[in-house]
Design a protein that fits this description.
two-stranded antiparallel ribbon, about 325 residues, 6 strands, binds zinc ion, alpha/beta, disordered N terminus
């Protein structure tokens, strides 16, 4: 178990797999959605090359690349075009083309809104989080980028998603401050179960949260533990999704009442790659709420679109 003081530190938490460190070092791929070289060099353990223990000369090389990182050319994670902006994950063209980027969304759950009226997702169910920041709809080409991150270990995609989501979060933070909201004191990636983490080798939400935290200058920490493996959420109806996730998350011992630890900040953000029904984020937020967190914001790279909404819609 990590000491609480270790978990709330700027940058990746100590439990991060080493692969979360090098995403910024991934060379710009000409076709970003094809397997990166790291994938082709998987070891017998199934881990990408960058996750295996490295020789001293490799560590020196990685340290040198890390130092040079801010000056290395980068490529758009979707089309491969050279990026001219330093803190960008996508080129301007791909960014403006993101599905549902300007969609009118429910402030609470990030779901798309059609005609005037209450959000149908929030009307059906209550969420334990207060607000949701969304980069775009879970639709092509964003779904392929998330799939490449999640299932092919292309961690550079996680960095790109984090940087682009940071643009949305920074605007949201300004509005939140103007409305008298608390500043976000901690970013929490939705944790995977131990079994899933071993199988995948990394947590895709952590990859996104790492870049997000660096860009927005918010500390990362992990007060949550995924206590048990749950059935895959996809394909389950909402009610079953919620049942499936009952008690899926618990508070790490260092954060339980009475433990000697820094209290959780008043406002935390939960980071995930995709929100579908919101059941996972609700379950995680519920634990934080019970631990006394006053404001909880969900931050997701993509939100699924209800079938009754058009593929593209504008706030105007
Ligand atoms: Zn592009
Ligand atoms: Zn809603």
């Amino acid at each position: 178990m990590l000491d609480a003081m270790q978990t709330i530190t700027p940058g990746p938490p100590a439990l991060d797999p080493p692969a979360l460190d090098p995403p910024a070092l991934d060379p710009p791929a000409l076709d970003p959605l094809t397997p990166a070289p790291a994938d082709r060099s998987r070891s017998a353990s199934g881990l990408p090359g960058s996750m295996r223990a490295s020789a001293p000369w490799q560590r020196c090389r990685e340290a040198a690349l890390r130092a040079l990182d801010p000056w290395l050319p980068r490529a758009c994670a979707l089309c491969g075009a050279t990026l001219t902006q330093r803190h960008a994950g996508l080129c301007r063209h791909c960014r403006l083309d993101l599905p549902g980027r300007t969609r009118l969304r429910c402030q609470r759950c990030g779901g798309g809104l059609g005609a005037a009226g209450p959000c149908p997702d929030c009307a059906e169910t209550g969420f334990a989080f207060d607000a949701t920041c969304v980069l775009a709809d879970y639709a092509p080409p964003l779904d392929r980028l998330i799939g490449a991150l999640k299932f092919r270990g292309q961690l550079a995609g996680g960095r790109a998603l984090g940087l682009e989501t940071a643009r949305v979060l920074r605007r949201w933070q300004a509005d939140n401050a103007a409305a008298g909201g608390l500043p976000i004191g901690l970013l929490i990636a939705v944790p995977l179960s131990e079994a899933r983490l071993r199988e995948r080798g990394f947590n895709q939400s952590q990859a996104i949260a790492t870049a997000l935290g660096q860009r927005c200058e918010i500390a990362l920490g992990q007060p949550l533990i995924r206590a048990r493996a749950t059935l895959a959420q996809s394909g389950l109806p909402l009610a079953e999704r919620r049942t499936n996730l009952l008690d899926a998350f618990v508070l790490a011992a260092a954060f339980t009442p009475g433990a000697r630890n820094p209290a959780l900040p008043g406002h935390v953000a939960l980071v995930d790659d995709v929100m579908t029904t919101g059941a996972t984020l609700h379950a995680a937020a519920r634990v934080l709420r019970l631990a006394g967190v006053r404001q909880i914001t969900a931050v997701v790279a993509a939100r699924t679109r209800r079938p009754d909404l058009p593929p593209s819609a504008s706030q105007t």
